[in-house]
Amino acid sequence: MSEQNQFFRWLYRLLALGGLGLLLVIAYAIIAGELSSRRWQHRNTVAVQQPTADGQKKVEELRFGDLELIRGSAIRMIKVESEVDRGKRLGLSSGGYGWNFRTRNLVFVQPGSSSPARWLFKGDGQYLSDIDQLCICRDGVKSPALALYFEIAQGDGSGRPEGVSPAVTHADGSGYATLGKPVARVLDKDVSEDGKTLGLLVEDQGKLVYRQFSLETFAPLQEQLVTQLQRE
Question: Fewest Cβ atoms nearer than 10 Å: which of 32, 133, 143, 195?
Answer without folding.
Answer: 32
